[in-house]
């Protein structure tokens, strides 16, 4: 895929590439699931445990969505019982720096409600 240069001085108000990326990442819990996978191959139960408040049904759907987007791959380990792991693809791993930078921004600028 060709590299597209970004010139901040000539930014147009709308970019279809940015909009498509935000559609992928903007789904509920999508970026949180991707962040949970930054450490490497992870089992479903470990992701579920790392993301409080997310139902198994929604996690399953989000993993399918992220796999369809080419950001996550599902790997079946031939063990007894069968072990399924999820990991970021190179495309998904390329988001790592973006997700961590967003996390840094959130730590500095986002205030959580008192009940969290």
UniProtKB/TrEMBL annotation:
The keyword DNA-binding applies. One of its GO terms (molecular function) is DNA binding. Residues 15-114 form the HTH hxlR-type domain. CDD domains: HTH_ARSR. It comes from the Bacteria. Keywords: DNA-binding, Transcription, Transcription regulation. Pfam families: HxlR (PF01638). InterPro entries: ArsR-like_HTH, HTH_HxlR, WH-like_DNA-bd_sf, WH_DNA-bd_sf. Transmembrane segments: none annotated. This is DNA-binding transcriptional regulator, HxlR family.
């Amino acid at each position: 895929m060709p590299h597209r240069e970004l010139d901040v001085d000539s930014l147009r108000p709308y970019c279809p590439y940015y909009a498509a990326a935000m559609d992928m990442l903007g789904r509920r819990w999508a970026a949180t699931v991707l962040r949970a996978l930054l450490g490497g191959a992870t089992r479903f139960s470990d992701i579920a445990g790392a993301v409080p408040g997310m139902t198994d049904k929604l996690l399953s759907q989000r993993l399918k969505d992220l796999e369809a987007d080419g950001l996550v791959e599902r790997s079946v380990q031939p063990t007894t019982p069968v072990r399924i792991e999820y990991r970021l693809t190179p495309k998904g791993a390329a988001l790592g720096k973006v997700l961590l930078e967003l996390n840094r921004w959130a730590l500095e600028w986002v205030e959580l409600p008192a009940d969290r």
